């Protein structure tokens, strides 16, 4: 069976002026062309070649000896070449660019973006890229342990869970939703620390340092916010976690630690309903 989007070994069944035809068996009617410029020297009928099968610009099945950056059901980081009215075109290492339909995007993309995608066959039997379904394709057998520093690529945001990250572009990781990810974009590569390896192998991550290191930075951030409120923050560390996260992008615990640091340094005073800067 000829397999679109996959690598497979096929038999050379016929040589023609413009290339060679390949098939699973000599008697098969379904044959696919390997263009002349791809044909190895001294190849002959009866030889086996490992090729990748895709469709050319005229929607004809064609084979290539070139190794694509992405095969069916796999994952790869591809560069966005151009964006059109119905989707984007990605560089996957073949003469024909790979199409990413708008309906398969999780966010708008721009030329030069490098995004994590998978390959699927659409209803018209064409190969297309998708930014969806990445979570289910990522591996959970990473070699990393708690407190390891890792590199990962942002591939999806969730209001309920947080920021999904592909560690090394292949392992499943996540930044919790109480961490500030407002400055991140899909495709960004970040350095993070592993805070937990779950029983299923997925990695919990953080962009923050350990509490005693992070506290200084958080305290300065809180002071900046108080300044933005003209020196009087209209809530305290007794506010709801939702309010604190919305206004400061900090968890309630991190906010309380920062406020405690500022109070000990006598830079603020805390009233029943506000935090005031001490002049």
Task: Characterise this structure.
The protein has 279 residues and is α+β, with helices and mostly antiparallel strands. The protein has four helices and 18 strands. The protein folds into four domains: 58 residues, OB fold (Dihydrolipoamide Acetyltransferase, E2P) (Beta Barrel); 60 residues, Nucleic acid-binding proteins (OB fold (Dihydrolipoamide Acetyltransferase, E2P), Beta Barrel), CATH 2.40.50; 69 residues, OB fold (Dihydrolipoamide Acetyltransferase, E2P), CATH 2.40.50; 67 residues, Arc Repressor Mutant, subunit A. The chain has a five-stranded antiparallel sheet, with no helix packed on it. Strands 8-7-6-9-10 form a five-stranded antiparallel sheet, with no helix packed on it. β6 and β7 form a beta hairpin. α2 packs across α4. It is elongated, with a radius of gyration of 27 Å.
Observed structural traits:
single chain; 279 residues; alpha+beta; OB fold (Dihydrolipoamide Acetyltransferase, E2P); 4 domains; five-stranded antiparallel sheet; elongated
Summarize model confidence as the mean pLDDT.
Answer: 89
What is the total domain count? Answer: 4
Sequence of strands across the biggest β-sheet: 3-2-1-4-5
Contiguous runs where pLDDT drops below 50 for at least 5 residues: none
């Amino acid at each position: 069976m000829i397999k679109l989007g996959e690598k497979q070994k096929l038999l050379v069944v016929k040589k023609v002026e413009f290339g060679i035809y390949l098939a699973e068996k000599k008697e098969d009617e379904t044959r696919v062309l390997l263009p002349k410029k791809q044909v190895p020297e001294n190849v002959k009928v009866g030889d086996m070649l490992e090729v990748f099968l895709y469709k050319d610009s005229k929607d004809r099945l064609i084979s290539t000896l070139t190794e694509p950056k992405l095969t069916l059901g796999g994952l790869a980081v591809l560069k966005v070449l151009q964006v059109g009215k119905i989707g984007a075109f990605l560089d996957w290492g073949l003469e024909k660019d790979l199409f990413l339909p708008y309906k398969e995007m999780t966010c708008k993309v721009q030329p030069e973006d490098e995004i994590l995608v998978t390959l699927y066959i659409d209803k018209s039997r064409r190969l297309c890229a998708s930014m969806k379904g990445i979570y289910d394709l990522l591996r959970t057998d990473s070699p990393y342990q708690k407190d390891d520093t890792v590199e990962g690529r942002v591939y999806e945001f969730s209001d309920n869970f947080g920021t999904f990250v592909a560690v090394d572009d292949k392992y499943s990781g996540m930044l919790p939703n109480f961490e500030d990810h407002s400055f991140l974009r899909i495709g960004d590569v970040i350095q993070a620390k592993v805070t937990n390896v779950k029983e299923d192998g997925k990695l919990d991550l953080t962009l923050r340092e350990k509490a005693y290191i992070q506290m200084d930075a958080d305290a300065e951030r809180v002071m900046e916010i108080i300044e933005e409120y003209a020196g009087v923050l209209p809530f305290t560390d007794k506010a709801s976690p939702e309010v604190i996260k919305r206004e400061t992008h900090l968890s309630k615990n991190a906010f309380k630690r920062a406020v405690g640091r500022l109070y000990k340094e006598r830079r603020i005073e805390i009233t029943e309903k506000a935090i005031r800067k001490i002049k």
